[in-house]
Each structure stands twice: as C-alpha cells, then as structure tokens.
Amino acid sequence: MASVRLAGVEKVYPNGHVAARGLDIEIADGEFMVLVGPSGCGKSTALRMIAGLETPTAGQVFIGEHDVTALPPQERDIAMVFQSYALYPHMTVRENLSFGLRMRGAARPAIAERVAGAARALGLDAVLERKPGQLSGGQRQRVALGRAMVRDPKVFLFDEPLSNLDAKLRVETRAELARLHRRLRATIVYVTHDQEEALTLGGRVAVMRDGNVEQVAPPMEVYRRPASLFVAGFVGSPAMNLLPGEVRADGVWAGPGGLVLPPPAAPGARAGTGRVTLGVRPHDVAIVAPGAGDTDARADVVEPRGSELLIYLRLGNDGAGGELRAVAPPEQQIAVDTAVGVRLDRERLHWFDEPTGRRLD
Length: 361
What we know:
Number of helices: 8
CATH architecture of the largest domain: 3-Layer(aba) Sandwich
CATH class of the largest domain: Alpha Beta
Shape: elongated
Helix content: 10-25%
Strand content: 25-35%
Strand order of the largest sheet: 6-7-8-3-9-10
CATH superfamily of the largest domain: P-loop containing nucleotide triphosphate hydrolases
Largest sheet: 6 strands, mixed
Distance between the termini: 38 Å
C-alpha cells in the first residue's frame, strides 16, 4: 500500500470551468479517506486526477514518494471501482475477478489463489460460475470490489460505488467495506455525495465545495466542530439549524423570534462586531413549557420517525420569527399549532462569522 498526496492541485477546463482549486490533501498509508460534497463540488475530478484519468492544470499528485502527475493510469498501480460496476456481462464471476490478472500474465495458481481469497472475503463462493445478469445489485457490486481486490494495488479508488443500491443494500455493503478495509489495511480514497456514508466509513473526511476543501478531519470532529457554515449545513441529518443574528453593543447575541443569548467567547464575536450566525443541531433543541426556555415557538409540523419526532417550529409568540427544527422522543406529545418553549443546549452551540462563513468559537 502507499500514501497519496495532492499538492496544490488545480483543474481548469478549456471552457473556463474551475473544478479544483489548489487542493492540498494528504492521505496516509492504509487510511480510509472520504471526499464528500454536493454534485459539482470537484470530488470526482480529484479522484480522477489521482487515477490519471484527468490531468491537473497545476500542482502535483504523489502516490507514495513518487510524483505520478504525468504517468498514465496503468502505471500508477491503482484499482478503481465505479458506480456502474463495469462488469463483463458474457463472463462468469470467476472470469470477471481474474480478468485483470490474466491480462497481466499472472501465473494460473496465483490467479486461482487470489480469486478464491477475494470470493471468500466477499461471500461470492456460491456464485463464481454465474454471470452478472444472474446476480443481485449487491452481488454485482461485490464482484466489482473483488476484481479490484485481486490486483492487490497500492491504492483503491471508489467513485460513488453504492449509489445504485437500495437503502438496505447500501447499509449492508457499507459494513462490508468497513470490514474489508480492516482486513486489507488498504489505502482507500472514496467519493460520495452522501454525508451519512462519509461519516460512517471514513477514517477522515474531506468536505468539498466549489472545487475547494472546506474541512479535513475525523468524522465526529466534522460533525461536532464544523469549520464553516457550509460544512455545518451539509453534514448531519436532520440538518443543523442556522440562525442569523448579531452581537449587539450591549454584549448579547440577538437572533430571530426574540432569541437572546450570551455571545460566543471568540475574538471575532466581540460586542458590536456585526453579523454572527448561530448553529444548533435539532438534537440539541429541547421543547419545554411556554416561557420556560430561551424563547417561545409554535409547532408547525410534527414528523414521526419511529425512534424520534422531528418537529418544525415557528419561532416567536406569533410564529413569525423563522423556522427551527427540534428532535424529541416519541413519547413527547406535541400537537400541531401548540405553543411551546424552546431551550438550546448551551454546551453544543456553534458560532460562525456571517460574512466569511468561518467558525468563531
């Protein structure tokens, strides 16, 4: 296995579209790194530049200690798994798994050993003589994984490999990928637009936006201490509440619906310094009796989710102060259009400078 490093990598297409802006990302040997972000953020372009399928406009790509920026894909010792599986329909599973090794002239005993090992690891022993058309979507995806595994590359690259699976299979295959990484101790770079997938799989997560990396950190750090307004709004389900406000000259933060709180203890949020956005996750919003919280609100929509209720609130006594989402236990009976109090967990508030979008505390 090997490390991967992007050093000042940029990609500008002939039409002027900037897909990547000065990417500096270091991925350690054996690390599971997830690149996550919305469509068009540059994550797949970054992966394709690691693979050699795109040429950077500027910067360098390293695999291990070697600068591979100018090397073609076949000389980079990487294996890529695509969303579309890309299996040969006329070949059996065994033939699909062994195809890359046969093309490289590997010895038959070595091919048989590697194919058997991959099939055991991925639970494909019983389907080795079937063709892709006879397999489920989950089985086809495991064959695509196995075809990459048997090559024993320095780096595995995954481009949204679970997007074609239904919800149940995605969960099962995520677990299989996590177990596979533990067994192989492989270097994996994984692209997804699904932030839940990113948080559950990644050893570290790189959140991307408009060709830039907004934050690189372990999953729970990204969740608990988002570095920007974009990361705060993108990561987490239900999404974080983001409430605009300002630190007034009297030293308090004033927000919508009469919400008034002590300001963040950060240099950028001194009294009278202007617009500061408060972030609070729905799980950190408690619903209490009217008048007993930080402000009052009215329940607008109550959405049962089995183990919890997601409640959409309208802030202020008249409900005209904007929306706030809260999560409550299913036992808490809250009727639509009921007046309630709202209390925020003071230990779990997030503060962002509104003009720059950067975290303050």
